Amino acid sequence: MKTLVVVGLQWGDEGKGKCVDVLSEGFDIVVRFQGGSNAGHTVKIDKEIHKFRLMPTGAVRGKTVVIGNGVVVDPVVLLEEIGQLKEAGLEPDLVLSDRAHVITPLHVQIDSLQEEEKGKGRVGTTKRGIGPTYADKANRIGIRICDIVDSDSGALEHFFEISSRRMARLHDSEPSVGVIELRKTLLKMIDQEGVRVCDSGEFIQEAILSNRRVLFEGAQGALLDMDHGTYPFVTSSNCVASAASTGTGVPMLLLDSVMGICKAYTTRVGEGPFPTEIDGEAGDAIRERGHEFGTVTGRPRRCGWLDLVALRYAVRVNGAKLLAITKLDVLTNLRPLKVCIAYDLDGIETRTLPASAIAYSQAKPIFEELDGWEQPEKPWREVAEAGMESIPEEMREYLRFIEKQTSAEVAMISIGPDRSETVIMPKARKFLFNGD
Ligand code: GDP
Ligand code: IMO
Ligand code: MG
Fold first, then answer.
1. Which residues make Cβ contacts (< 8 Å) with residue 398, sequence separation at least 6?
2. What is the pLDDT of residues 315-327, one digit of tens each?
3. Which of 50, 103, 250, 429 is the most buried (most CB within 10 A)?
4. Which of 235, 239, 293, 327 to mutate to test the pocket of ligand 2 (most atoms within 8 A of CB)?
């Protein structure tokens, strides 16, 4: 196994950053392939905490990192994160696709204006300009990294002119920056030491052919995927594993394995249906214990029980054979634990996700109860060190239940935010770290 795609299986914030950090020890290159600075990925190593919105998480381990063509790049954020790494004594080795689209301050402004205009029907976006940038890409008026490198092309001026006119006409507003200032920031990003602009597909493919191992780091999650998620309450990119191919230019057949990351419960930020959402005290308890507040926006995350209908669906659309279950520690002493195994849709029991958000918002969860677990005598870090044998039996039962319901294999569990609070199944360890 030379390549692994890691994706979120819920509505984002599953702990992808932490899992990618742990796994990237065994890889040479870590690649982002979709989304933009709407992502918020956290890595904790003892007292050190790194938060990334755009930079692939592997930068913390000094790996070569790639931002593929499917990502939308905000130069201001990228510059900030390069600075953040340098401050921590790390020199990023970053490959930036010449085909990636650029988020400008105009896109960020339009994101907010559109949300206001939608009123009650708003998506609850991160207001980072993601939707408007992908819309411009599809509309064939977007700005790409190659347009900045070739400053004589006139593409930036053309984009600026069209966008300013549209802003005035549709939103009665004007850009907060001028085209000269915009070009300055864009060039500053590209001129950073350690940033290489090239065809990401060619770069990664050559690396794979030279036996280097590549990890693809997904952002958001299957239920936020533009095609497969809970439309229209989704993001504007494909977040499923197949996007690792289109979002980098690496052929699909070079993607060997898919690991889906899933929290032991469910959270969602922003609007949209959420059948297992818990109102009241139990939901508040999970939010407090799990520190469920958005990394990017600081918004409180909506919390609910594990939804196995949604998880089965996400495992299927991703083709995920491996699972990482995170934040199990957060459910400690919550007994019994509820898990949703089916929905009641208008009196009919169903085990699939309805396409319509209106229908989905009426789905009532059908729960099964499982015994929860108590805090073991040792702290979680020591439990993790001791391995799978020392985790509570009820937790093991919870994992077996997930495996049975999804037909996927739990390869890794996370029982705390720290890098060390992780258990990798012995069978998966060899495969994940050595590729056997
Ligand atoms: P991502 O977007 O999927 O990378 O996830 P985020 O980083 O946005 O959110 C996950 C949060 O949970 C971060 O604050 C992590 O430090 C934290 N976290 C990750 N795994 C665990 C875990 O197993 N237990 C606990 N308590 N926190 C965790
Ligand atoms: P990570 O990578 C959680 C949500 C927003 C909103 C919807 C659309 O950290 O898991 P957008 O700004 O993308 O147009 O917003 O998607 N959303 C996320 N929720 N984690 C994320 O990323 C998210 N990225 C976008 O809250 O509901
Ligand atoms: Mg996040």
1. 264, 328, 337, 370, 373
2. 999 999 999 999 9
3. 103
4. 235
